[in-house]
Amino acid sequence: MVRETTTLIESVKKMYPVLMFLKNRYFPDGRCFYSEKALVEMKKGGQKIAPFVIPVVGGIAMEKEGYRTEYLDGPFIAPRMPITADDLEKKAFGESPESGRAPEEREDELEAENIDELRKSIYRRHEKMCAEIITTGKVLMKHYASAEDAAKDKNAVERYFQFYNTEEGFKNQYKLTKKFVDMTASEKMMELYKMAAVLIDRGIHATDLVMTSDISMALMSDEKFLDFFNKARVETGIIDQKMLPAGTLAMLTPGMGATAYAQVTFVKKGDGFKSYAEPIVIRVLDDENNNMVDVQAFSRPIPYPKDWDGWLVAQEPEVSSVSDSDTTTTEEKKTVSYKTTEEINAMTTKASVIEYAESIGLTGLSDSSKLDELKTAVINYQEEKQAAGE
User: Kind of pairing, strands 312-315 and 173-175?
Assistant: First the structure.
């Protein structure tokens, strides 16, 4: 297996692209900086009109619109997937039991699979960061020190990227009075025109209307609404709703932002420290003491809007999560069945541990953690639940 980081970085670039609609269309990759910080430049759009002046005056100075230049620390995203001798002794998925392959023959294949999985997990984080900027104007980044802390969401070091003035608040939120499914066709059109008018007043001409599936169904199933556009002129697409809260509608413009990257620095045996300024940096280490190979991936992205007033997002009013038909009493609800510590320790795959964890209410575990770390997190969690009588 290749161990040279530069070669691994180039290999990642040649892998199949990952679908990142929000990231690629609205916050495409920008500059990579050989620094812990990245330069971010933003401005506030406007619609000032040139004044008429008396010829002898020569001109009137116009006040410049808002402009900000900041150096932001790149957050640290660093998932890892260790490969042990035990992992290599098991046959690969789809491999014939009679293949006769030696563990070392499976190593290259497993390392490549791990690199691809780490790459995809980082890209999913990039996409989520962009979704948070669109819906809230900021990104909350929680940095954890262990899998157990991440699972229980505790002891996190929190940082924010906030792209609006705290005193003014997030001005890109448009308030809907009711759900789209309850609006008439004319009411739907009026809401869309009102949103567009807000942006036009700011000097922004949004070209995209991005919505979650529930909003799309409310619009596309309304024949009167479609008739307004003569049906044939309506173009629809598929958006992964997992990255946007249900009931979200946004008016956006391609390239309204960008993603800068700060450098990743680590020590290389026999060669001292070295820095890499790339969207994703891959490192593969041989750990002789623990008899394993550690596959690591690093990224330090900073997605940001070029104009902090340059888009508008609306979210439907929240409704009660308890329906009239939900009359299940506490006694009737399903009780949780816990496994013993021995049963948990007997699990051989990360997927089985994570699946069991989610079945007892523990979320947030990642397969980038070690198998033993995942087991410990689950055992501690259920011990606390049992001690509380749950």
Answer: parallel
